[in-house]
Amino acid sequence: MQASQRISTMLGGGSDGWEVFARARQMIAEGTPVTELTIGEHDIRTAAPILQEMHRTALGGHTGYASISGIPALRDAIAERVSARTGVPTRRENVIITSGGQSALFAAHTAVLDPGDTALYIDPYYATYPGTVRGVSARPQAIKAHASEAFQPRSADIAAHAAEAKSLMINSPNNPTGVVYNRDTLNGIAQVCRTHDLWLISDEVYDTQIWEGMHISPRSLDGMAERTLVIGSMSKSHAMTGSRIGWVIAPEHIVTHLINLATHTTYGVPGFIQDAALFALRQGEAFETEIAEPFRRRRALAYEILKAQSVVGMIPNAGAMYMMLDIRATGLSGEAFAYALLDAHRIAVMPGESFGAAAAGHIRVAMTVDDAAFTTALNTLCNFAQKLVTNRAAAATS
Ligand code: PMP
């Protein structure tokens, strides 16, 4: 018996890009210590008061089926938060609570695409994007952004594919690059969406991690609220990755369909998790700043280290917990460099190629180990790259 085409082709036939990560995890399982700068997860755990609230409300009885769309108080709190942060009037009816940003992405694409439709997204991209599109039987079409332009996508490149497309997905602050789209980029994107009648799916799960400039939600741009679905999550902003709670903000008629989808898939998110999320949101901005602070600090440390050498280049990152480093001077691909670094120094990073062709010759470094380990790892990485360049030059002249 064969699995469906839809599910068996979700990965597109190629690798899933996680081989270096898998090798690192295997080394750890075999007892070899590895500095992991791979996965986008904090080096702290969910704060105890949030877990205590989860415990309290679960013991208090909130363990039955919860409201499928999300408990009203949480939907209201998120609507209020979005209104305050973006200036776009947002009501409970614009919000559905989901099992993390991940299922929000899948739900959003299910809501706006029919089988065979083309869905655009920007390369480099968060690794699951093409699979999400294939998972709803649509056709993924990547639009390359360029390292030389700090990975801000060109609206003309998006427009060139827009006539055949139904949706565009963007992600700012960006995983894997740490780039935050500026107002010009977002105005250009909005213009293309309006002209070509595209749905915009805006993945904003890193919106509390801004190191420079500001986050602009494209839903706040002229004529965009009616065609934009925003993906949000508690994972990154509140260090709640394991709680699996996020949301979609969308026009009311789309949320109505999403509630119907949830009725047939997840049947909602556990009530005690939703109560804990509400409690976490009520801790306010100071708490979110505290969660983001280690990444801000490590980014500053990284800039100092990178400034002192000239072999490893850096795409200026204005947000998120990642840095994209340019290692093309070593002559290696991102993947070859990542394997070599892992073998030589037991430091695991993600090859840029895991996130699309546009990031070839780069590596993504997650700033997710403590400051001392991060500084040591980054210094080692730079020295390693320097050695590769020196050896390469020596080989060329011998
Ligand atoms: N979008 C992006 C860009 C991400 O990096 C992630 C997680 N790494 C997600 C969505 C999904 O996160 P979650 O399901 O934990 O909310």
Summarize the structure.
This protein has helices at 5-8, 19-29, 48-59, 72-86, 100-112, 129-135, 155-162, 183-196, 252-264, 271-281, 284-307, 334-345, 371-397, and strands at 35-36, 95-98, 118-123, 139-144, 165-171, 199-203, 228-233, 246-249, 313-314, 322-326, 347-348, 350-351, 362-366. The protein is of the alpha/beta class and 398 residues long.
What does this 3D model show about the protein?
This protein has 398 residues and is of the alpha/beta class. The strands form three sheets. It has a seven-stranded mixed β-sheet, with helices on both faces. It has a four-stranded antiparallel β-sheet with strand order 9-10-13-12. α8 links the parallel β5 and β6. The longest helix has 27 residues. The radius of gyration is 21 Å and the shape is globular. The termini are far apart. The chain binds 4'-deoxy-4'-aminopyridoxal-5'-phosphate (PMP). The site of 4'-deoxy-4'-aminopyridoxal-5'-phosphate has 13 residues, from α5. Belongs to the class-I pyridoxal-phosphate-dependent aminotransferase family.
